[in-house]
Amino acid sequence: MSQKVIIVGAGLTGSLLTIYLARRGFNVEVYERRADMRIVNISAGKSINLALSTRGIHALDQVGLAEEVLKTAVAMKGRMIHSNKGELTFQPYGKNENEYINSISRKDLNVILMNEAEKFPNVQIYFNQRCTGMSLETGEAYFVNETHGGSSVVSGDTVIGTDGSASAIRMEFLRSKHFNFSQSYENYGYKELTIPTAEGGGFRIEKNALHIWPRGSYMMIALPNVEGDFTCTLFMNYENGEYNLNKLVARTDVTQFFQKVMPDALELMPELVDDFFNNPTGSLLTIKCYPWNINGKALLMGDAAHAILPFFGQGMNCGFEDCYYFDKLIEKHGTDWQKIFEEFGKLRKENADAIAELALENFVEMRDLVAHKDFLLKKKADVLLEERYPERFISKYAMVTFHRIPYAIAMKRGQIQDRILMEMCSKIDSIDELNLEEAFDRIKTEFAKAGIEEKLKLEV
Ligand SMILES: Cc1cc2nc3c(=O)[nH]c(=O)nc-3n(C[C@H](O)[C@H](O)[C@H](O)COP(=O)(O)OP(=O)(O)OC[C@H]3O[C@@H](n4cnc5c(N)ncnc54)[C@H](O)[C@@H]3O)c2cc1C
């Protein structure tokens, strides 16, 4: 196959996509703005570590990489909730030992993907190449060399923009007619902080959990790294609430805030104040746009097409799933890019919108609900219903995280289930008081009204 595909951005989605395309024999040229992270010590951007789950693992497995990646991961079997008083409560993620998520280093994962991509003789990755735009008429893409400033024009049979939420390729789409675009920032920012490895090695707190300090209008989470440290992320409103980012200006503000609301975390974080002031404040945004392609000349994929909030741990998983479905469409349509791109957009758009909505819902769940009685009872009800009605009831979290059920279906079913169960759980004090048959009957009735089939098609 002599066709040449230009990929802009060698992040997580772009690197995995390169492998899929190289396996099909395409000549792939990848242009990445940053230096080669295998040679130069640079941050891989955004979060230091990420939660990898079933959709992402499946997409990696198709190219034979799941095992290698999972070797570098730490299993997170549930949420460890830290109360104001430092009490700990563990909430398992799944119904059994096999349902867990994996904490992986963004950089290690990106390196594994780039190394694998470069094993193919038909792949070339160019670093320090910042895309400045492209011509949607000719398909040429334009680059500036970030080290010496020279510019270049590159052409191929098609261009795929996997250049993230600030995509330069998407900027070109904005100039074309009939392109819809929205970008919405949350009034929240985030700070990455660290719980270092214990003296003498090992983990200072439970290794196999995603730790959460839920505090209503703000929260902190901590994900384990194989080396024994934890990467913490404090999500907080910029200006509202008793505590907010704008109020944390002096070193003592930060220590006093932690002392008051997360004293157990403060003890674990000797570098807290330096981390807080040295690390940038990240912003949180959702990007929606459509169509994702222009005339078969260019396509957007991953965060470039659908950046979402990080609260369901699905952004990368969704980008990896994009790669898998894209590959299936190449199998079906060969090199008819226009057909592939259009079908890809139709297949993925409603699912990308659904996970964007679910991610927002999960923010409320994580920062607030996880500490409430009704929610804890609902979690128990989820497990009991899953056991009693297999393939007809799966919790929303499990549909998104442990299955590949399209996000749009997971959202429709999950919202109905959660609404009914939360209402029923608000009227009881113990899970033994919940009438499971009644709960399932009510859910079934709502499914029927919404035109949802009772039985789930598990992996489509
Ligand atoms: C705080 C936080 C936590 C997260 N946690 C999770 C999680 O637990 N699980 C999960 O699945 N997802 C998570 N995500 C989402 C995840 O980070 C993204 O969905 C994922 O990185 C998207 O990958 P991408 O390759 O599409 O984009 P990116 O990772 O943004 O990669 C884009 C690449 O393009 C390059 N680039 C950008 N502009 C140009 C240009 N003009 N020219 C050339 N190259 C360019 C960049 O340097 C980069 O290498 C999280 C996000 C955040 C912010």
Automatic annotation (TrEMBL):
Keywords: FAD, Flavoprotein, Monooxygenase, NADP, Oxidoreductase, Pyridine nucleotide biosynthesis. Residues 4-172, 295-326 form the FAD-binding domain. Transmembrane segments: none annotated. One of its GO terms (molecular function) is kynurenine 3-monooxygenase activity. Pathway: Cofactor biosynthesis; NAD(+) biosynthesis; quinolinate from L-kynurenine: step 1/3. It is an enzyme of class 1 (oxidoreductase). Its cofactor is FAD. GO terms for biological process: anthranilate metabolic process; kynurenine metabolic process; L-tryptophan catabolic process; NAD+ biosynthetic process; quinolinate biosynthetic process. Gene3D superfamilies: FAD/NAD(P)-binding domain. SUPFAM superfamilies: FAD/NAD(P)-binding domain (SSF51905). It catalyses: L-kynurenine + NADPH + O2 + H(+) = 3-hydroxy-L-kynurenine + NADP(+) + H2O. InterPro entries: FAD-bd, FAD/NAD-bd_sf, Kynurenine_monooxygenase. Its EC number is 1.14.13.9. Catalyzes the hydroxylation of L-kynurenine (L-Kyn) to form 3-hydroxy-L-kynurenine (L-3OHKyn). Required for synthesis of quinolinic acid. Belongs to the aromatic-ring hydroxylase family. KMO subfamily. This is Kynurenine 3-monooxygenase. It comes from Solitalea koreensis.
